[in-house]
Amino acid sequence: MTLAREGQAAVRLDDGRVLIMGGTVPFTGVCGMACIEPATASVEVYDPGTGKFSPNGSLSQPRSDGKAVLLHDGRVLVSGGYDPSVGWLNTIEIYDPARRTSVVVKPPADIQKLPADPTVVLLSDGRALIAGGSYDEYNSTSKVTLIFDPASGGFSDGPLMAEPRQGATATLLDDGRVLIVEGEYYENNYGYANQNAELIDPSHPLSGSSSLPLAFDAATSTLLSDGRVLVAGGGPDASGACVTPNVPEVFDPGTEKFTPVGPMSTPRSGSAAIKIKDGRVLLLSAMDSSCADKGTVEAFDPDSGTFQVIATGLPKTSGYSATLLDDGRILIAGGTGESTGLTTASWLLKP
Questions:
Q1: How many DSSP H helices and E strands does the chain contain?
Q2: How does residue 138 score in pLDDT terms, banded at 50, 70 and 90?
Q3: Which end of the chain has a smaller Cβ tally under 10 Å, C or N?
Q4: Spatial distance between the Cα atoms of 174 and 267, rounded to a whole number of angstroms
Q5: Would you give the DSSP letter of residue 204?
Q6: What is the mean pLDDT of the segment spanning 28-33?
C-alpha cells in the first residue's frame, strides 16, 4: 500500500477495484514520551488488473475502525470509528470514488448528532439502517434505529430494538429483515456484552422485536447461499481477552432459531469472515484461547456443517482488511504484528 496502516475500512467497487479508507498510521515527528499513532483520512485504491495501490483522495475526517458500505449509486457510506485526537466519532460521510472527495452527512433536525459506534447495514432498496450506538459519549447505549436515504439525504425512524446495543454485526436476510447479533451496551460508563441477537423489520417502523438467545460471543455474521446465517469468530478483535469461543451456530430465518455447527478446527477470536463463490465461508487469521496468533484459514461448508483448515502461513497480523475480489481471490492488506509493527504489505489468497 502507499501507507502502512491498520484498522482501515475496505470495500470492493462495482468496477472490481478495492478502496482502502482511513485507519491508524505510524507516528511521525518528535516523540517526547508516549507516542500515539494517529488516525488518517487518506484513501487509496487497489487495482487487481495492475496489482498496484495508488492514492485516491481523502475522507472528510480521519477515522480508524470505521465501517464502509457500498451504495447502489457507486458511492461509499463510511460510519463511526475512532480518532485518538477527538475520541469516538458520531459522524457518517459519503465518499465519491470518482471525484475522490467526501461529504459529511448532516444529522436530522430533531437530534443534535448521530450515534457513535452504530451498526450500519444496506437495505435492499438502497437505504441504510443505522441501529443503536451511543449518543452520550459511551455513558449509555441506545435502542433507536434510523433509516438513511442516500438519494435524498433524509432520515426516518426505524423500529426500536429489543436491546440497547452498539458495535454489533448485522446481516440483511433474503426476506428484508435484519439479523443483529451481539455487540455491547453501556450503563453509567460501564460496558456489558450482549450475548443475544434479534430480528428487526425495517419495512415496519412500529414493529416489535424480541431477543434471541445465543450460546457464545460472536464476532462475525455471514449470509449463506441458502438464506441462513453463520455466526462465528468469537470476540470483537484479536487483542481481546483471548477467550476460546464455543461452537459456532447457524441461524435459520424460517424457524428463527440458532443451531450449533462445527466445531472449528481452531477456536479463534477476532477473525474475519468472507463467503466465497462456491458458498463456503472462510475464517481468516485470529488469536486462540492462549492469545497465540494463528496464521491459518479455515473454511465452513454449509452442506456438511463442518470446518476444515485450507491454508497456513498467513502473516500473523491484526487490524488488516480482507476483501473478496471479482476473480475469487481475497485481498488481505495492512495490519500490525508484534515483529513487524504497522505494515504496507498486502497478500492475495487463492481459495
A1: 0, 35
A2: confident
A3: C
A4: 29
A5: -
A6: 70
